[in-house]
Write a structure and sequence with these properties.
322 residues; two-stranded antiparallel sheet; 3 helices
Amino acid sequence: MIRGIHKEVRIVVVFKRLLLAGALLPAVLLLAVPAGGGELEDNLSVYSEKNATGYMQPLADLIGVDLNSGIFRSARIPVSGFRLSLEVPVMMTKVGDDDRTFRAATEEGFFPEQTADAPTVVGPSDAVIVDGSGSTQFAFPGGLDLTSVPMASLQLRIGRLYGTEAILRFLSADIGDDELSKISLFGFGLQHSISQYLKSELPLELSAGFFWQTYKIGENKSGSDLIKGSAFTIGAQGSRQFGKPMMYVEPYGGLSVDTHSMEVAYESEASGEPQNINLNLDRSTNIHLTIGALFRIYYIGGYIDYGFTGRSTFTAGLIFGN
């Protein structure tokens, strides 16, 4: 009887921790909305497609790296047993020097046509102004002046069946009046134990997994989605635990292939008349190397890792559950 009571107490404690994670998420989400986001569509409206692609592409690439981070950690997946955990990952990808400017050309109607190293959406906030004939000027709009692009979400990990765990990533929030404050995200994937098929003892656990996501960010002037896209990753993971079953440290690493695509819908005034533009940005494909470590103390844990895709990404998070 006493053993049963202790089990119920542990379940209640875990449930309270899950509620706490949900309560903290809105504060974490504030990281995901860049300051000055309300200027984005106004800045884009100056550009037709030829410049808008160069202006927005770095943000698409940076968001893609964020989305494909913080998914896989431990490769240890028993063949059977029950697992349920809630995870709160926060990813942050560093903006590189090459992300901050692009070679832009003045729009139709400005004479003579000129090119300049103009800010991208993540670049400097100051506009670049060039002079034309008849004392005219053209202003290439500034960016949001970001040093990194952060993102946060909730993840639910459920298992185990034949050495397999399911992973869900989800988010739906409207955290202000900013045009970028409306965010939704859904992702699904599986992670499967490879170690269970290997007869010889290895010094580490091995697994493989895939993950697919779709997302929407913001609302444009016509009431449609400002930004939307999808991401996919597939790869292998390895890890090793040091310590006791419920109190341990586990270094891990992974290698994956990531893809990401983004669309932007905005109203352009570059031609002098309002025109709706549906911009399909270039799909990115990256090799993604991850190294990190997690710790667990009974029903609570945490982790931190570094990812490299040509860009640097730092991920940290909390784990609540078994």
